[in-house]
User: What shape does this take?
Amino acid sequence: MIERLAEVAQRDVSRETFEKLEAYCALLREENARQNLVSAATVEYLWERHILDSAQLLRFEPHGTASWVDVGSGAGLPGVVIACFARGPVTLIEPRRLRAEFLHKLCESLRLNASVVLGKAERARGKHDVVTARAVARLSQLLKISAHLSTRNTVWALPKGRSARSELAEAQQAWQGVFHVERSVTDENSWIVVARGVRAKK
Assistant: This one.
């Protein structure tokens, strides 16, 4: 699994990083019995469906100490996975209290360079080098609620499954920037919207 992880993340995976991810999976399974964090059908396939799928976003990191923000972090996907690797700070934004408390517990127990913001993305502050979000909202709505967290140089790395191209076409009616769509390396039928210079059309 370490080799596959290194392949999708396009970087070396230390034993410490791998152990953090194993501990995260154990905590996630335990917490999933208390609150519905990931679909019960995917719990058995956490590595394939969630860990690797999140880790592949690291290939879009613009530099080694980039700051990340994960909008609607939920179970910590992809934010916690990214924080297990990244040298820069990771901000996890989550509006639901129980999930935010779980994320805070993860950050402490895994000793991550990550912080949790309890609240809606619209009210969050700060500027980040990378914005990501997984299964939060359609692309146009996601840009609307989180564009203020970005700069002209921010990279957006947004897993969008099979609807990536249609969501991008819709979003480009109101948003401009340099957009492209990349195939997921974990699912050939899924796509990731990657963008820079995102701003609302005037």
